[in-house]
Amino acid sequence: MARTSCVSLVFFLHVVLVFPASTCLGLSKSKHSKKHHEVAFFIFGDSYLDAGNNNYINTSTLDQANFRPYGESYFKFPTGRFSDGRLMSDFIAQYAHLPLIPPFLQPGFRHYSSGANFASSGAGALVETFQGSVIDLKTQLRNYKKVETWFRHKFGDDEAKMRLSTAVYLFSIGTNDYMSPFFINSPIFKFHSHSQYIRMVIGNLTTTIQEIYAGGGRKFGFINLPTLGCFPGLRIIKAENNGSCLEEVSSLAKLHNQALSKVLKKLGNQLKGFKYSLYDLNYNLRQRTIHPSKYGFKEGKSACCGTGQFRGVFSCGGKRIVKEFELCGNPNEYVYWDSFHLTEKAYKQLARQMWSGEVVSSKAMGLYNLKDLFRDL
Ligand SMILES: *[C@@H]1O[C@H](CO)[C@@H](O)[C@H](O)[C@H]1NC(C)=O
Ligand SMILES: *[C@@H]1O[C@H](CO)[C@@H](O)[C@H](O)[C@H]1NC(C)=O
Ligand SMILES: *[C@@H]1O[C@H](CO)[C@@H](O)[C@H](O)[C@H]1NC(C)=O
């Protein structure tokens, strides 16, 4: 855009005054050299984005995916990602011309100028969510603060501030806060109404955003929650449901998504320079579940890896509570990889939309897609 207006200005000046365009060229050159540093990418949240942090914490295989057949389609070895291959954040890094962003806890990882991945499978916005087995959002933020300090030491205060303010911060969080009470049979909803509980989840996410903003962060990407009750792993937890979606969890996700849109709008009005993208994962995943063939899949409801009805039993890899599992022949035919997670092919389609914001989702995307956020310096 800047270039077009510059060219037309030069043209105008030439015609009218036959004036050398050095001022204009000088301006565009200095603007260009400012863009030279790479845009850092920081990733927070749960298993939809965790590239392997849980490999390095004391947890159980329920929150780990560092065994076969995880990773088999792309990496050819299990990296800790809950998929057969890459995650949405891996594709986003690729579209932004960045290397794959390593897990913060990966031994030897110390150079953070391209960013870091703090996400932890099983994590929620509430510290109580799978407490003791995951890196909760508060701890993820504490880890990010260490990286902030690294930027200041490495680049000095001014350049660190500039780099942190042009960086993109991506979040996927909430799913585990709403699912965990159903797995551990928690009485939490006897003490809190649904709307109180949602306020706590959103409140803790908001605090995290505000702290990153206070440290200089300006550009945020969010992914809303899928229709959780339709995960293969949730269709099967109440036998009397006959395999239909578990509405109580889905309705929590729906209310959360409404509250999320609202709070982001509010932050956009309150915080100067705050820019965000909000990807409608809910709509776009639902479409693929209902009309798999429209998107190049054969199966939208059952998982590729697991056992029982819909392969919804969380046994992929045979290292969890149930040891028996089946694996489909071709993960590319499936939307769901295991009871709760998607195949690389599904993640790739969603990441593409999140990046360039094409197709039907545009109305729910906030004012920007991720490409806009990465390119706006
Ligand atoms: C890891 O967790 C287990 C189970 O919670 C616990 O018994 C053990 O002491 C922990 N180990 C370390 C090194 O923290
Ligand atoms: C954050 O979550 C805790 C429970 O883990 C809750 O007590 C607190 O009120 C929440 N904070 C906000 C700002 O909502
Ligand atoms: C579940 O399926 C069985 C057998 O198909 C049927 O008899 C029963 O009425 C169904 N229950 C519900 C709640 O739909």
From TrEMBL:
GO molecular function ontology, one term from the record: lipase activity
Pfam families: Lipase_GDSL (PF00657)
InterPro entries for this protein: GDSL, GLIP1-5/GLL25, SGNH_hydro_sf, SGNH_plant_lipase-like
Residues of the signal peptide: 1-20
Keyword terms of this UniProt record: Signal
Family per record: Belongs to the 'GDSL' lipolytic enzyme family.
PANTHER family with a match to the protein in the record: GDSL ESTERASE_LIPASE 5, GDSL-LIKE LIPASE/ACYLHYDROLASE
UniProt-recorded name of the protein: GDSL esterase/lipase 5
Organism: Rubus argutus
